[in-house]
Amino acid sequence: MLVLYRRLPPDRALIWTILGAYLALPPVIALNFPVIPDLSKESLPNLMALSMALFVLKDRISLLPDSLVGRVLIAIFVLSPFATVLTNAEPVAKGPALIQGMRLYDSVAAVANQAIAVLPFFLARRYLATPEAMRAILVALVGAGLVYSIPMLIEMRLSPQMNVWIYGYFQHDFFQTIRAGGYRPVVFLPHGLWVAFFALMAALSALILLRASPVERRARMALATLWLMLLLVLCKSMGVLVYAAGLVPLLMLAPRRVQVLLAAAAAALVLSYPLLRGAHLLPMSEITAFAERFSPERAGSFQFRVDNEENLLARAELKPWFGWGGYGRNLIYDPITGAGQSIADGAWIITLGIYGWLGYLAQFGLLVLPLLLLARETLRQKVEVSPWVAGVSLILAANLVDLLPNATIIPFTWLMAGAILGRAEALARSRRTAPVEARRAARARPSKTVI
Question: Transmembrane stretches, by residue range (predicted)?
Fold first, then answer.
């Protein structure tokens, strides 16, 4: 990272610091030192990126968004873990055993972990708020996707072994890598679903660059796009193929202003999803029946997930405001044996169960707010929307939608959200200062003498 920050512009150095560490460092393990939070591929790059900004670039990073809503969300994000700890001091039964109550140390650790997690959000707000920087995000995703396609293809043929060969252990359940008579790759990520979603981001980025490329570069960009689309299909993940089926026509045909507005609408749906699920306003049974027409196996898997979420949502309602806290207290166990009876897959139900509604609104609100603010400025101002800004907005919206079935919230998610927030705030500042600058220009013009 030191080399990156000495040789590259700050925007590209930040992008490759977060993206490169996410793709290359070992998953699901951490260095556990006393007092300080665990250092993993999710936290260590964030801390180093902040160190580079402070001590190499000698820059100042603002930790407060311009909007009042953003500042309130930051305050809740920081303070809600303390309320979670104070309301969960009692142990929870796990069959014949007990899960310990929360301690004050747990709140300090949770605040530290959350503060580290959102560092890319604030760094991107500072360095990636321009359309040119967002183009650099898309170029990085395409480049990384092309490079990552090599180990992905190796694992598709030989089974997921890259992490075993390089780091000496397998990071998940090997059975879950077997799909459709072959294997889906995992490489250095936590699960094959994470790899599939990264392939989706790379393929969509290539498509965005293709659409806006000059004529002389389109042939090469078209080959990269086709290759990444083929790679996406080979990942054998139905969810990302559904996302691609909806997003590819949108990227090819829809005006960029429409793309931004649809991204904001998807973000608003994600934010309200727990309310809609709790009120039973979403047609989950109809979705299961529709999926069963194509694959009874996938429909059964979807229904199993829905049933789990219903049970976990009912448990979360017992402590709605501040949640159950950590150590698995938010899960459901057999009252006799203590065996787990629930699986929490989606980031929304995990956050809602651990931190309650306040924690959920703080975390998801910070991720959704940039898209809502960008949509507001798009409606208020008659300015042309950059293809890079619209493209990153749609990719972020797809990532937010994927947080409903999966927990694919990664440092790059926060990076994209911070970049869009910075862009939305810059547009808002220009809108507010435009009348002032117009009056100053009018006063500076020489007055005409009327005869």
Answer: 12-31, 68-87, 107-124, 136-154, 192-210, 222-246, 258-276, 352-374, 394-422
Sign of the alpha-carbon torsion through 281, 238, 134, 127: positive
The token pair at 213 is 């490329």
Residue 353's nearest CA partner among 40, 92, 116 is 92
CA 117 to chain centroid? 11
Q: Which of 264, 211, 244 has the alpha carbon at shortest distance from 396?
A: 264
Residue 363 token pair: 């975390």
Q: How far apart are CA 370 and CA 373, in angstroms?
A: 5
Tell me the one-letter amino acid at 169: Y
**CA separation, residue 70 to residues 29, 123, 137, 352, 361 (Å):** 32, 15, 24, 20, 11
Distances (CA, A) of 396 to 3, 268, 345, 350, 365: 28, 13, 19, 20, 14
DSSP 251-264: HHHS-HHHHHHHHH
Instruction: Report how far apart, in Å, the C-alpha atoms of 309 and of each of 203, 277, 348, 372 are.
Output: 31, 9, 10, 27
pLDDT at 103: 85
* Distance of alpha carbon 302 from alpha carbon 285, whole angstroms: 10
How many CB atoms within 10 Å of residue 137?
26
pTM, rounded to two decimals: 0.92
pLDDT per residue as tens digits for the range 149-189: 999 999 999 999 999 999 999 988 888 888 777 889 999 99
In the prediction, which pLDDT does 445 show? Answer: 59
Q: Are 119 and 47 in contact (CB under 8 A)?
A: yes
* 107 close to 82: Cβ distance less than 8 angstroms: yes
Q: How far apart are CA 260 and CA 385, in angstroms?
A: 8
pLDDT digits (tens, 9 = 90+) for 322-338: 999 888 899 899 888 88
Q: Which residues of the chain have pLDDT under 70?
A: 35, 434-451
Question: What stretches of 213-317 show up as alpha helix (H) in DSSP?
Answer: 218-234, 238-253, 256-278, 284-292, 296-316
The helix (H) or strand (E) run that includes residue 417 is helix 411-444
Beta bridge partners of 183: 178
Report how far Cα 336 is from the mean position of its chain's Cα atoms.
38
Query: Please, are residues 172 and 191 in contact by the beta-carbon 8 Å criterion?
Result: yes
